[in-house]
Here is the input.
Amino acid sequence: MRVGIFDSGIGGLSVLHQALGELPEADFIYYADEKHVPYGEKTESQIREYIEEIIEFMLDRQVDAIVIACNTATSVATKEYRSRFPVPIVGMEPAVKQAVELYGKLPGRILVAATPLTIAGDKLHNLVEKVDRDEEVDLVALPGLVRFAEKGDFQSDEITDYLREALKGFILEEYKAFVLGCTHFNYFKAYYKRIFPHSVRLVDGNAGTIRQLCRKLGVTEHRKPDRRKGSTEYFFSGEAVTEKDRKRIEEYMKQLNVMS
Ligand code: DGL
Here is the structure.
């Protein structure tokens, strides 16, 4: 079984990381559209063009399913659009529903962070309207985190400064949960824990996305053996990665191991 996973950049590696544990025998193709990152600051039609090219790339390599490991790309790729292609396509949306189901009964608010395009999109607004019965969900765009993640900067004080500035309009004490509605945001979990004055609950959509992928593939038993049998190939905007890129990917994977 071969699965294609793509994102605008290295954010989707967090989804691949989850998938490697759940589907040890599958072969993966990971595609980072490094030429066009950040998607969150592009137009919808530009992103649709990129997505089509990537899906064709994956289909040429005979994948059995494709995961859009990018909330921004998913927000512009509707279900009807996705069903045009001959294999299942699993998208991602900010895990607002999950956050409300898990923590809705507790006192406090839920803050959903994503890219500017996802935050402005109808899809997220419709989702919030549907699940936020108590009107406890707020939204914030954090495009700067995509840049820090792409630079491989997981350690600097600038990240803290950026977050403090971007979140200064919110009373952080009020928040019980923080939804990571962009896969690039997964690298900064330690920072959110520091920025919120009490231990805020972090919610991301990675596990749910891989569960959905397994359902689509008809995989019912998830095993987590120590050694993987499947292969993983990496591409940056259609080109096989160089040795230097591979080292970069290894650094991201290490960071994800530390946080999982
Ligand atoms: N990682 C992407 C997401 O989940 C988008 C980041 C970007 O390219 O702006 O939305």
User: Anything to note?
Assistant: The chain has twelve helices and ten strands.
